[in-house]
Design a protein that fits this description.
alpha/beta, 358 residues, three-stranded antiparallel beta sheet, single chain
Length: 358
């Protein structure tokens, strides 16, 4: 019998669907705390840059994001050839899988961690090796090092980890990097780097400098508040950065995104103030939850994690009924973004009421 539909790659079968944070609704939950977005508007100068850039919609953007790359290289003190851009850090992560792994290869990551990892690994045709978090919801780096084989091509370390907010500190991370073979690429996914206040958590850019097999991912989506423009970047040694440029979607980062990112980098003082305010709110939220009796892992990101098991869906429904949308991971727990003070207050009241009803 002849086939009646186009032949598609077998690897696409069973790929999990990426689940975005549920939006707020005009007639329901007024606040969205489900996507780790920055509640503040664009930084000063950003709207002006984007408005000016809008006059050139009829032209393709700079393929190499040259001005942005130069700005990033100067900001981080690295050669421009060590910087590669993409459509958010998740876009760059997918490029890394494409550049390193295929059929028969393995990609290691903690679980639960960023839900895009299994998706981009399977799309690339590689095999996921998931290593459970510790009982404290932290990366088990020793266990991750123990599962490295000659088929391992790539390792993701999400620091702070999404969705738990937990971190791995310098000593344990350096021990781990020392154990990983030099021909295996280790990706330090630091999408929430700006929110870290623990001095024992290393800056991945400093670790990359003398380790050619370390690549650092960053994004403008979180602290910088450019989630809707999709621009992220990697800092890596030349062979890896060059491979990222080869696997990039041509013209993937729009001209508007490039100009907005440059303007955001130049408004760092304002950025630090906003991040500082969110960190203060984070402490308030965590302290309040613990006072209510919740077990909350230490978070260094702009969200908190509550492990709820079979009560996850009920808790998410209760929050939505109260007026805030959060991010449930069915059967596991919820991730709640630290947002506006008003939104955080609604969430805390909902959490307290749910706790009393248990």
């Amino acid at each position: 019998m002849s086939e009646t539909s186009p032949r598609l790659r077998a690897e696409l079968e069973g790929i999990p669907t990426y689940k975005p944070g549920k939006p707020a609704t005009a007639d329901g939950a007024a606040y969205k705390l489900s996507s780790n977005e920055n509640p503040y508007p664009p930084l000063p100068g950003v709207m002006e840059s984007v408005t000016a850039a809008a006059c050139s919609f009829n032209r393709y953007p700079d393929l190499g994001c040259s001005a942005l790359v130069e700005e990033l290289a100067e900001r981080f003190g690295v050669p421009p050839s060590h910087v590669a851009t993409g459509t958010g850090s998740v876009g760059v992560a997918q490029q890394l899988v494409q550049a390193t792994a295929g059929a028969g290869d393995e990609v290691i990551y903690a679980w639960r961690s960023f839900e895009a990892y299994p998706i981009i690994t399977q799309i690339g045709g590689a095999t996921s090796v998931r290593v459970p978090l510790t009982t404290g919801d932290v990366h088990d780096l020793e266990a991750m090092a123990n599962v490295v084989t000659d088929r391992t091509q790539l390792i993701f370390v999400c620091n702070p980890n999404n969705p738990t907010g937990t971190v791995v500190r310098r000593a344990e991370l350096e021990r781990f990097l020392d154990r990983v073979p030099r021909n295996v690429l280790v990706v330090l996914d630091e999408a929430y780097r700006e929110f870290i206040r623990d001095p024992e958590v290393p800056d991945g850019v400093e670790l990359y400098r003398d380790r050619p097999n370390v690549c650092v991912l960053r994004t403008f989506s979180k602290a910088y508040g450019l989630a809707g423009l999709r621009v992220g970047f990697a800092i890596a040694h030349e062979p890896v950065a060059a491979a990222l440029r080869k696997t990039a979607v041509p013209f993937g980062v729009s001209h508007l995104a490039q100009e907005a990112a440059i303007a955001s980098l130049r408004a760092e003082d304002e950025l630090l103030g906003r991040v500082g305010s969110l960190v203060c709110e984070r402490k308030r939220v965590v302290d309040a939850l613990r006072a209510q009796g919740w077990t909350v892992p230490e978070t260094q990101a702009n969200f908190v994690w509550l492990r709820l098991g079979e009560r996850t869906a009920a808790f998410a429904d209760a929050c939505e009924q109260a007026g805030v949308v959060i991010r449930p991971f069915p059967g596991e727990g919820v991730r709640v973004t630290v947002g506006e003070t008003e939104a955080n207050d609604i969430f805390l009241k909902a959490a307290e009421a749910f706790r009393r009803g248990i």
